Amino acid sequence: MDRLKDRAALITGAGSGIGRAAAQLMSAQGALVAVADRDRSAVEETGRLIESAGGRALAMTVDVTDEGSVADMVSATVHEFGRLDVLCNHVGGTNPRLDLDLMRLDMAEFDRAVDLNVRSTLLGTRHALPHMIQGGGGSVINTASVAGLMGDVLQISYGAVKAAVINLTKSIAVQYGPDRVRCNAVAPGAVVTPALLDNLPQEVVEGLKRTNALPYLGSPEDIGHTMVFLASDESRYITGQLFVVDGGMTIQSPAAPGRKAMLPPRR
Ligand SMILES: NC(=O)c1ccc[n+]([C@@H]2O[C@H](COP(=O)([O-])OP(=O)(O)OC[C@H]3O[C@@H](n4cnc5c(N)ncnc54)[C@H](O)[C@@H]3O)[C@@H](O)[C@H]2O)c1
């Protein structure tokens, strides 16, 4: 219940999916949570959900690609809670209808991908760091993706920018470890959120279940619990690491499904 007691946490993309779940779970562990999203009504709903469960929330709009907006988000958090201990740079993604293969990629979408995933992570951290250092340290949690670890037939920008987020995580950890600021990344696999359901046809979603070692897809809470751990002192000796939370999507040999037929039937 008290793993994050009186810590101030700021979560971007908290109007929906994983970001909302992470904010609710951090609040349930005693954190004061600032929730930010570009969708005002969605993020206000997250704030209401937290407060009706007995937590304390500050809901605000932000565009994480706009430095002025990011600076205001951080200032408002510190003004409200007097400190900043945890930052989740959660917003990200690309549009799979524009982010295609190398030759058919829309270059404007590539630039947008860099802004939304990489620049936003860099900016959020840059504005939060001085407050974390002043408070004696902190934890930055970046949302990457398993897409940053593998090649794919489309979304060439998405893989590249998530790989960049993983590397950014390591450099931030190296550069600010001496200031007791930890920085880790979470790489979700397939997680049932609006982002997944809106972007993938149903047959692809069903196919993802077969790719996992576990026979189900992730929930936003599955990722949120990992973020709570990374925000808390339980992870005080962990920095610069990538936590792959993917139901075993990336650990299975590609030959495994085909080789199943070579086994005698299970008794
Ligand atoms: N859902 C998955 O399967 C999955 C898998 C791997 C990685 N991810 C990563 O998780 C993050 C998305 O989270 P989700 O799955 O909960 O998606 P989601 O669509 O449920 O939530 C994303 C939120 O980000 C907000 N947002 C979008 N652009 C913004 C901007 N410029 N400024 C501020 N807010 C903005 C949206 O309004 C929305 O509320 C991304 O970084 C994505 O790459 C998701």
From TrEMBL:
* Keywords annotated in UniProt: Oxidoreductase
Q: Which NCBIfam families match?
A: PRK07231.1
Q: What is its EC number?
A: 1.1.1.-
Organism's domain of life? Bacteria
Report the sequence similarity comment from the record: Belongs to the short-chain dehydrogenases/reductases (SDR) family.
Keyword set includes Flavoprotein:
no
Q: Enumerate the Pfam families for this protein.
A: adh_short_C2 (PF13561)
EC supergroup of this enzyme: oxidoreductase
- SUPFAM superfamilies recorded: NAD(P)-binding Rossmann-fold domains
**Regions crossing the membrane:** none
Q: Which GO terms describe its molecular function?
A: oxidoreductase activity
Q: What protein is this chain from?
A: SDR family NAD(P)-dependent oxidoreductase
